[in-house]
Predict the 3D structure of the following.
Amino acid sequence: MSPKADPRNLRASTSRGARPTMRDVATVANVSFKTVARVVHGERWVREETAARVNDAIRQLGYQPNDIALNLKRGVSRDTIGLVIADVANPFFSTIARAVEDVIRERHMMIITASIDEDRERERAVVDSLVKQRVTGLLVVPVGKDHRYLSRERRMGMPVVFIDRPPGRIRADVVLVDNIGGARSAVDHLIAHGHSRIGIVGDRLDVHTMSERYAGYQRALDAAGITPDATLARFDCHSSADAEARVIELLALPSPPTALFGTNNRMTVGAALALARQQRRIALVGFDDFELATALAPPVTVVTVDTDDLGSTAARMLLRRLDGWTGAADRIVLPTRLVVRGSGEVRPSEPHLASPRRTHR
């Protein structure tokens, strides 16, 4: 039998105009479906001239194997990484995702990205789904506090790197931000400009980044001898609209804050909106930079971290594991930087609030 595919079969198989299948290849090559499957899957026990005829039919038809299906057949998706992030709609996390994608693409690998919207149960479900798809490795911005459910996969060799927040109850590679130091530098800056009544607006305190930024806020007050005032703290804000409403509450207090600290980009946007609507000019410093921060009046002073570096560092840590590195779990903490633009330098308007109120020690 000739190693060339039969052209009459080729015409019959392509006349339908549908995407070629393995059954079409079998028809053109005049072999069984099982023989085509063996050739496509790279299995042995196929005669050389038969394999040549199958490959000739594949070329003539333009048939393209389903790589995901093939890898699942083999038990692993060799070129796929799973990325689990808290909220894809948040520019902070979308920037991380893009940086991860840029690094992973350098290896010609695929990436599956999923958003869990700060939901612990959804985190577990999404991770389980990715594991079942046999991804090669995982990059996770965690929400939950217990990640022992990944222990079995890690023992079997799947590398996992956590981003922005540490894993719970397991040791694993992680890339973090200096949240405490960054928050402290923001509040120190406000104190240096004469403020002692500094409001803080944030998300849930059980979120790792939020609890650390609140700790930095408290440390800055303590170091300056300023007694914390619980009435100036507003948490459990998930959106900029939530933050805006809470800041309006703060501005309505009998003794309102003269400065505000927004603990992430959405909190800061909400605070800026509240100040604009209330036509109030008080100091504002945010954690995380955001688009249009320089377009506001005054431009917003922020504590920022290189989010590209956050994502790319985590991706490279994962690739290092995939390349065979077996060292102990690594922990990298990226520094923050205060960007002075004008909003954080507004001084208290009332003379009696011009200097910090200090306690006697």
Q: What stands out?
A: Residues 244 and 273 are 6 Å apart (CA to CA).
